[in-house]
Write a structure and sequence with these properties.
The protein has 144 residues and is an alpha+beta fold. It has one domain: Aminopeptidase. Helices cover 26% and strands 40% of the residues. The chain contains four helices and seven strands. Strand 3 and strand 4 form a beta hairpin. This is Protein N-acetyltransferase, RimJ/RimL family. Keywords: Transferase. InterPro entries: Acyl_CoA_acyltransferase, GNAT_dom.
Amino acid sequence: MYSPIPIRRSSSTEADNAKSYVIEEKDSDQPIGITALTNIDVENRNAECIIDLGDKNTWGKGLGREAFQLLLDYAFLEMNLHKVYLRVFSFNERAIRLYQKLGFQTEGELKEQIYRNGSWHHVLYMGLLKRDYVDRPSWSVRCN
């Protein structure tokens, strides 16, 4: 059963072309991360999306997926965006798996864009179209 975690708008970072939300743990109301739509292009109906769960103790519990699904629902169903996209470091395999499960596809990469721990890494660009998101089998499960 779909049970949304609380997220609240972060008014301190709100702008015309961005919508940011604090992710809170249900039981404690403690902030555990942030999710946002940035670079919102109303005319072309697209935006960049981000998520960051800072506390590693919250990783692997499905909280990031749930929060990101809420953000995507908002982007596609409330804002009627056509596309959302993101950037992710190539070494962030956990995030890449999440994005792929949600339907994101790799659209490009910036080769050797960042230097971390003694080696160069790529930055991947991934995108998701509204039709691909709402047509996914997991969508009908969440809506029932």
